[in-house]
Amino acid sequence: MTTIQQTLTEAQQKLSKTSDSSRADVELLLCHVLQCNRAHLYTWPEQELSAAQATQFDALLQRRLAGEPIAYLSGRRAFWEFDLKVSDATLIPRPETELLVEQALARIPLKLPQQVLDLGTGSGAIALAIARERPASQVTAIEQSAAAMKIAQHNIQSQKLDNIELLQGDWFAPVPQRRFDIIVSNPPYIPAHDPHLDQGDVRHEPRPALVSGADGLDAIRAIISHAGHYLKSRGWLLLEHGHDQANAVKSLFLKYGFEDTHHYTDLAGHARVSAGRRPD
Description:
Blueprint: H1 4-15, H2 22-34, H3 38-43, H4 51-65, H5 70-74, E1 76-79, E2 82-85, H6 95-105, E3 115-119, H7 125-133, E4 138-143, H8 146-159, E5 164-168, E6 180-185, H9 218-227, E7 231-240, H10 246-255, E8 259-265, E9 271-277
Parallel strand pairs: 3-4, 3-6, 4-5, 6-7
Antiparallel strand pairs: 1-2, 7-9, 8-9
């Protein structure tokens, strides 16, 4: 039998060769196996793992050594105020997407009912955050992938929010006759031949949720070109995009008649979210 301390030390030594976050990775995996929090690991370092726990941990460690994301190994990812279920059918929610949520919330009054549309909801992260923070509003989340739909449905049900509806379909197809006060989306935006697709966690994420044509803008073009038909007068469209796509996105907003265009930067200073407003 091995103890928590021995497991932490030996696993970190192995993982340090392939991960810059080896300590945190090992702690997360061990907490997942033991169903405990991080404090438990250091309060009870001499606790022995059972044979089953040791086997489960070793299997997860081998997958992490092969590059599989921690979020997929544990099946969970923290986002906003949630602990979301994720799988290899969904993107892993990232801090840039919280920037998208923040800018959406800045445009949604707290107590005035609004109609919000989240396109390509994946795990449901964006829709859940908006629904939680703006309970007077109704959020409609659309997802094309049946596998991702199951994950989103689980997350919505687990949060017990009654102001979200989940629909399956391609972009605007499930809401042909409806108009919204605000539309948000984290669509695919990586060019098909981008070398980053073969690096890091991205290697394991679903390609249809990442890749969008030769320049990465196919989905963004489709959304912007049709969004005016689904927005109310003076309604907002907000999109997450690549760090070097802000100018192209602004040009598309202007091409399709949007006004008041803005972009917003992440902590690294990269423009990652853009907004445009439908005119009267």
